[in-house]
Design brief:
The chain is mostly helical. About 85% of the residues lie in helices and about 0% in strands.
């Protein structure tokens, strides 16, 4: 039973982390472009993954402490998180309907320090990253006894995602050069976000 609980928490954490990070934002687009240009791919992917892992661990640990101080906060954050996810999904649905997105590996070569600072800024100065990793993942983690396994699964998803995206960018380039690919991706993101929101409210 313990092994099953660990496996269930790990899988849920991995799936949630992967779903949240799947959305193509400024950080992900930057990683894709670095991969397309083959510039500092390992360092950029590692920076993004480690940053996410730190925020996820802080979110799970911090939210657990917060619930002991303010027990009623779980219900409030659960509804707030669900509303955020429904809104996030609606924006993705709108992007899927409107279309027009297209990935371009624009820009010339840049120094390692410039690339790294840009990566850090896109990660740590983005308010959505705190909502996703600290608040949302933290709030959902309270449903699981094996919170460490949940956090590890969510953190691992960041490593898998960023390195797969960074080194697989060359394979993805022809696909995301087509606007329709972005519309399909946005549609899938909408479905994932809404399913997570419903799951959050029904547990």
């Amino acid at each position: 039973m313990v092994a099953k609980d660990l496996s269930s928490a790990f899988t849920a954490g991995f799936a949630l982390g992967f779903s949240l990070i799947l959305a193509i934002g400024a950080q992900n687009a930057f990683v894709l472009r670095q991969g397309l240009k083959r510039q500092f791919v390992f360092a950029i992917c590692l920076t993004c993954a480690v940053s996410d892992a730190m925020l996820i661990i802080a979110g799970v640990a911090g939210f657990e402490w917060l619930t002991t101080v303010l027990p009623g906060v779980v219900g409030v954050v659960k509804w707030a998180g669900a509303l955020f996810l429904f809104g996030y999904g609606a924006l993705s649905l709108r992007s899927a309907y409107v279309g027009g997105e297209k990935l371009q590996a624009s820009g010339g070569a840049q120094s390692f320090s410039t690339a790294l600072l840009t990566c850090l800024a896109l990660t740590w100065l983005n308010p959505h990253v705190y909502l996703d990793t600290m608040m949302l993942i933290g709030s959902i983690s309270v449903q699981y006894e094996a919170k460490t396994a949940f956090a590890f699964g969510a953190a691992l998803s960041s490593f898998v995602f960023f390195f797969a995206m960074g080194y697989g960018a060359r394979l993805l380039a022809p696909v995301f050069a087509q606007p329709m690919a972005w519309r399909v991706l946005d549609g899938l993101i909408c479905l994932v976000m809404w399913s997570i929101a419903i799951s959050l409210l029904t547990h």
